[in-house]
Q: What sequence folds into this?
């Protein structure tokens, strides 16, 4: 594993994937084949100007701007997001008993929050989310036995959480928001005085959660919903609003969900707990873990607290 | 399955893969990361000018020309090809008993020739070729029971072969050539008077077989080795020499090995037997089969003979 803080830059292996994502996005936006081709050509024209020192969400932002430009749709993933929220809300009642039966509620809530990241796959690939969730959560025991595993630093997280008066929680995708709600509700149950700020994107970008998704997921009942001020599919501090940055640096604890936020913040100079499902081989390789791993990473490596 | 003859054009899904192939080729050529990036940028610049009405091997040719231009290497896959030949030659003695024990020698020879297509994977991914071959060939019985399966039209092939005085055999990759040798030797054993012309590429392109590979594989003892006159990674008739075209149209039977030749010739106006392992989802979808299938396709669909 590399030394932190080094931001995750774009790898050459990300480039074929940019085209794959662009094609997928154009199709999801209902573009005809001619428009799909136009999107790919535009990405090709943008590529030589793109610095690999930038992080993948920056190129992701460019790609999805090109999709929007060519399709004329401001929010191509709107239907996907709504479907994700509905799907996750339909799963929610089944998750609560799981939490209530757990002898380590916080751990279960953390795992559920991380695994909620598969919702977007489910919606796109008509996957059976129940089955997939069950499959991932069946590894639970392995994780419990390794609460201080290098890639699942739960004890540090638990301690940091116990001392935090303010928690900044960076959301990832719509739908996953419902799973975040479970963790947030558990945090609030443990410490009713804790202030939790739930951060969503300012404008539509891929299937990232917006204010509406957070509200639809019921998060507004427990946390304050806030915008990052940015439309990058990951937290790129230079693109965030001053208001966000102020809270980001002042919060006692930052929980960062998903790969995009990890990519954007892996080089940040403050402590962050990264919670994500390692879905991409390049990210897994960068973090030093395996694809499919349920990750809880204390950053910087030698000090999980601020 | 679509109506033939319609050439397999380039699908939008091929585009991300072009970048993947370019990166892989640049790395195999030993390019440093800066040069790898330069190759990808050059492919990006070439993309908007590329017609999707062209077949994938045409873009493949462009990509590998860009790799050669940027790396200064005329044959980046030379080591891979030599390793493939050696690997296949080391497997060859184990394949002969398989043939001798078979109660349908021609069928076994055909299957071996097709499955030899995995050699390039083996070399690239340090795969155990013995094990992989065994895995594929263990499906043998299934194939034998379906000799007239839509995607394995063995009976038509056998009949066409029995009447053919001249056979044009279009090679695919180095290493695979050794597996072709098994089929060619079996054809010659069945009909010593049959003239077999084994066609390789004119100049280095990816790991496609050249004259040297055919000779190193021992094919010159049984067949006449001939060049297509082209350096596309698949038979694109418009790029082939007149000498090749004359033989191509006059031969009683054409055996076309591999995906690249299928992509180039799927719209041809003469009869061809396509033998390939379906390795790519786009090609599998185009042909109407599944990834991993061992394919023997009589073209045109309604008439496997000339």
A:
């Amino acid at each position: 594993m590399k030394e932190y803080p080094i931001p995750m830059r774009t790898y050459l292996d990300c480039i074929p994937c940019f085209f794959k994502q662009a094609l997928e996005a154009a199709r999801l936006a209902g573009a005809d084949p001619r428009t799909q081709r136009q999107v790919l050509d535009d990405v090709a024209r943008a590529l030589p100007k793109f610095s690999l020192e930038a992080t993948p969400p920056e190129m992701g932002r460019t790609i999805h701007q090109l999709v929007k430009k060519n399709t004329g749709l401001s929010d191509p993933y709107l239907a996907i997001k709504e479907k994700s929220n509905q799907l996750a809300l339909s799963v929610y009642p089944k998750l609560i008993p799981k939490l209530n039966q757990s002898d380590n509620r916080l751990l279960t809530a953390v795992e559920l929050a991380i695994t909620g990241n598969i919702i977007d796959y489910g919606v796109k690939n008509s996957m059976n989310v129940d089955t997939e969730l069950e499959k991932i959560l069946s590894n639970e025991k392995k994780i419990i036995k390794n609460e201080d595993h290098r890639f699942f630093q739960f004890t540090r997280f638990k301690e940091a959480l116990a001392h935090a008066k303010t928690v900044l929680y960076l959301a990832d995708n719509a739908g996953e928001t419902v799973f975040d709600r479970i963790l947030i509700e558990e945090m609030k149950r443990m410490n009713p005085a804790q202030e939790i700020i739930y951060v969503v994107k300012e404008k539509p970008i891929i299937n990232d959660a917006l204010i509406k998704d957070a509200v639809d997921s019921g998060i507004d009942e427990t946390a304050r919903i806030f915008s990052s001020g940015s439309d990058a599919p990951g937290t790129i501090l230079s693109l965030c609003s001053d208001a966000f940055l102020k809270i980001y640096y002042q919060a006692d604890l930052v929980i960062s969900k998903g790969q995009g936020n990890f990519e954007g913040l892996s080089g940040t100079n403050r402590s962050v707990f990264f919670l994500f499902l390692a879905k991409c081989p390049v990210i897994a390789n960068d973090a030093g873990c395996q694809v499919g791993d349920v990750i809880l990473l204390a950053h910087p490596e030698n000090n999980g607290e601020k």
